[in-house]
Design goal:
With about 375 residues, this protein is mainly alpha-helical. About 45% of the residues lie in helices and about 10% in strands. It has a 3-stranded antiparallel β-sheet with strand order 3-5-4, sandwiched between helices. Strands 1-2 form a two-stranded antiparallel ribbon.
């Protein structure tokens, strides 16, 4: 479904995730919550709701012999949630407990600090709080459900042991007719605009977790394929990348270091390098990391690195189509992001067509972005 946590209203951060959790646990119009739990267990049906910044993924798995029962339960959960009051209280308590322990580990701290710094005015940098969770009413949950769970706002994919015509008839009878052809949910406009050059969060732990990033673009973008190859060489290729070889293997400063060119279609992304190291080796690890960035910008890449990176990216494509479920998921997300139907045929062709000159100078990584200025704590 087209929605995400960035669509949560101000002051009610956490609404979307709260609502979809309750759709599963809060009963339906015809099935009380306790009975719903028993039915799902009895028929071995698996439901999962995944709410992220720019997407809501609902997944259900069941034995084909129970298809009619499973689809009935699925329809009840999706279109007729009851949001029982006692379950609202229970889910709210669980959500607040998760918030209270959200920063027990360093990785969520790093992620939240990075998002807040890179998107200081963005809806994606907001966090749910005890206050925001307590402000959410049953009417808020109902309003969210009505605005999101519409046929025109969804993409459905199904794979398994069934007759195609039979399942199409079942699905068409289950779901209301679309009111129009366009999604009913719109995403807010978000800009990436770093607030500080350095952001330090002090924690009494033995390791330091570092993320070095800079503004990037959103897809589709003509340079994305060249940048994918560049990223694979710099740090996306795990142990065989330049950062993996230098910082991990040669210097032994970390167990894991990687770079990532975020493939964001909804708002501008960031390009970042992530690693952890001991307190005593932070300065050395950061300095060597930036030195590797400068080196690849100044000297470029080798022909062998270029060919190997393209080969890895092209040969990883079949892993997205290993099973019928993979195929359904892959094409559903392809449609979600409005990519062309022949995207996966064009993808390897575009990579093969790349020339060394296309990525010799990666203009989105400029050394001046890492110049030293006063620390922001």
């Amino acid at each position: 479904y087209k929605t995400g946590t960035i669509n949560d209203p101000g002051g009610k951060e956490g609404l979307g995730k709260f609502a979809v959790n309750l759709m599963r646990t809060g009963g339906t119009k015809d099935i009380p919550a306790d009975e719903l739990d028993d039915l799902i267990d009895h028929y071995a049906i698996s439901f999962s709701f995944s709410m992220r910044q720019t997407q809501l993924n609902v997944k259900v798995q069941f034995l084909s012999q129970f298809i009619d029962t499973a689809l009935y339960i699925f329809k009840q959960i999706i279109f007729h949630p009851a949001f029982e009051d006692n379950r609202i209280d229970k889910e709210r308590e669980i959500a607040i407990q998760e918030i209270n322990h959200r920063f027990d580990n360093p990785e969520p701290v790093l992620d939240a600090a990075y998002q807040r710094n890179m998107y200081p005015e963005g809806e994606n940098s907001r966090l749910s709080s005890e206050k925001s969770m307590n402000s959410i009413t049953k009417n808020d949950l109902i309003k969210f459900h009505r605005s999101v769970f519409k046929t025109e706002n969804a993409i459905y994919g199904i794979a398994g042991n069934f007759s195609k015509n039979d399942i199409l008839n079942k699905l068409e009878s289950m779901f209301p007719k679309a009111v129009n052809d366009s999604p009913s949910v719109k995403f807010p406009s978000i800009d990436v605009s770093p607030k500080a050059k350095y952001l330090i969060v002090h924690k009494e732990i033995s390791q330091a977790y570092i993320q070095i990033g800079l503004p990037f673009f959103k897809r589709p973008h003509p340079d994305y394929y060249a940048i994918s190859v560049f990223n694979m060489i710099l740090g996306g290729g795990s142990f065989t990348s330049r950062l993996g070889t230098k910082i991990r293997s040669d210097e032994g400063l970390t167990y894991s270091i990687y770079s990532y060119a975020q493939p964001n279609y909804i708002f501008p992304a960031t390009f970042y390098i992530n690693f952890f190291t001991k307190h005593s080796t932070v300065n050395k690890a950061v300095a060597l990391t930036l030195k590797e960035v400068d080196k690849i910008l100044e000297e470029g890449i080798t022909k062998e690195e270029f060919q190997n990176a393209k080969k890895v990216l092209i040969e990883s494509l079949p892993s997205m189509f290993r099973s019928k479920e993979d195929i359904v998921n892959t094409y559903a997300w392809n449609e979600y992001y409005s990519r062309s139907l022949d995207h996966f045929r064009v993808y390897p062709k575009k990579l093969r067509a790349l020339k060394m000159k296309d990525i010799k100078k990666f203009r989105y990584l400029e050394s001046h972005l890492f110049e030293k200025i006063p620390f922001h704590k």
